[in-house]
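Hello Y.,

Per our agreement to keep a running log of every chain we model this quarter, I'm adding this entry. I've kept the format consistent with earlier entries: sequence first, then predicted structure.
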Amino acid sequence: MLRGNKCIGIVKEIYSKWERRCPLTPSHVQQLVSQHGLRVLVQPSKKRVFADAEFEAAGAIVTEDLSDASVIFGVKQVPVGDLLDERTYVFFSHTIKAQPENMELLDTLLDKKIRLIDYECITAGGKRSAPRLVAFGEYAGKAGMIDTFRGMGERLLARGYHSPFLSIGSSYMYEDYRAGCQAVEAMGAQISKHGVPADFAPMTFVFTGNGNVSRGAQEVFKHAPHEMISPSELGSVDRDPYKLYGCVVEEEFMVKPKVETGEPFVRSDYYQHPEKYAPQFHEAIAPHMSMLVNCTYWDNRYPRLLTIEQLRELETTDRSRLIGVADISCDIGGSLEFLTRDSSIEDPFFLYDPVTGKTSDGVDGPGIFMLGVDILPSELPREASHHFGQLLTPFVPALATSDGQLGFSEQAETMPPEMHGAIITSHGELTPAYSYIAKMREEQERAQAQPLSSEELLSLEGSTVVQLNGHLYDTGLINQVLNLIENRGGRFSIVSQDVQANLMDDKEQVTSAAMIQITVDQGRTELEHLIAGISALARNTPYAEATVHEVREVCGESFE
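Predicted structure for the entry above:
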């Protein structure tokens, strides 16, 4: 039933016991029923934050059977056994990077001829490099900041200090977001009256980036007595224990040009040519922060925010004031190399010892406390669902009447471009913009059977790594490059790809990027011919605005 029939479904979430969110709330259902004449089927759930009765009162039909629905919405991945043939499904699939753990899901979607739309890919105008339009990010920041205050209180207590932070619980412990903010305000009143422990003043909270996630965290932070300062002021702040200090650090304080030109920092140049920049966060910012709240997207084209060695050096030379780290991005081994594991909502904190490099459960012992929960918005399920549904609802009526039986290109005439650009599968095939997933899978499978390691491959004369920047996916350039490599008899492995560059800063549009390891048996001469061919494709593909260069610093013993 790919032809829209004005009947939609909402699944019950079973991904995690903490997943109490829903993509559309009762208020959104009421709007869709009364204003657009849609029929809404909702699977019953005893743990969903909105009761079944609330959906029924809004005009929905609560039923396990969603077979009448032509479009079915969820939050997280739908179990393969529950997928109905020839329907449109909308959820976070986590398949666009060919994630191995979700390839069975992708195969099932293809086998059942399901039209999959992924929230992660709903962008302005349907362009892959444009800002995302439907996301929970703001609420990851809000929930994460409340949890951070809780962690600060428990860690200071473990070090022998009472503090006002000890009155704060995790976000899920409050009735709603407002109650959580009221608890932060009460904590703030105690800071104003009694102060934070003098041994830790000034208490500085550093927020990386200024996108939705960071702004959500800052919103909570500002319910406490605070002063926002610039990065250049971090080293000269008064030791005032009766307020907190907040500092937003963006890219110009994270990195610096390798060759100083005297020109102002240009963010777009850094995004497109990260090889021209060296890290400086560990020198300019890290020695002065009490708490790091990491909110930025990262991939390994860019310098890490803090490495294991940089943090160890700060600690062993007595230049660190760091008490804890809240990695709201929860990118294990990413911009914070020492985040080596995640944590859970019910057990959110663990310790990392910069000297030994070891982690331990709880907050008692040597080290800094770490927060690394990957489903933080689930701690504020009611508000997060309402926020998400507000963003999603405008697209639902057109999607409920769109005709998925049409050819993929013809479907664009029956639905908004934002939704058409987010279709990953249609008619049992990957859509053109996402056909690269198949090639990535093939290479992953080939790599598993490959007797040579990455280091051994790179030691070959005919192997290297190239970096592509530009509109790789909107224009189909990435597919053309991979086809060229295969047609020339080469092998490839995608070392990293950034298909969501807008996550770095949602204030401006950013191009995509990919790092590709290429190996040819004919040696360096053939490899250079192949790189020249890739460069020609980049120059001649309309609107790609692409650049290609060999990443020689990666062409050594490893990709690290």
